[in-house]
Amino acid sequence: MGMGVKPNKFTLATSFDACANLACLEKGQKVHALRIKLGAEIDVCVDNALLDMYAKCGCMGSFLINR
Questions:
Q1: 5-41 in b/e burial notation, b at 16+ Cβ within 10 A?
Q2: pTM for the whole thing?
Q3: How many CB atoms within 10 Å of residue 3?
């Protein structure tokens, strides 16, 4: 990101998956904010990984409120 490289849908989905597996909600929320900031397109794989991350971190309410 610092060198002008933007994450694509595969990078985002993989990042959400890693955060879910590590139960790392704070980092996952930062990736979520980055996705919103970049205006990333709607993508089923990315959205499923995002939903999974919030579910595994026990914060489905946060996900649903932010939608």
A1: eebebeebbbbbbebbeeebbeebbebbeebeeeeee
A2: 0.83
A3: 4
Could you give the 3-state DSSP secondary structure of residue 5? Answer: coil
Q: What share of the chain is helix, strand, coil (3-state, %, to 5)?
A: 70, 0, 30
Closest CA to 36 of 67, 2, 5: 67
Closest by CA position to 6, among listed 33, 57, 40: 40
Average pLDDT, the chain: 88
48: which 2 tokens? 């499923």
> In whole angstroms, how far apart are CA 8 and each of 13, 23, 56, 60, 61?
9, 22, 23, 24, 26
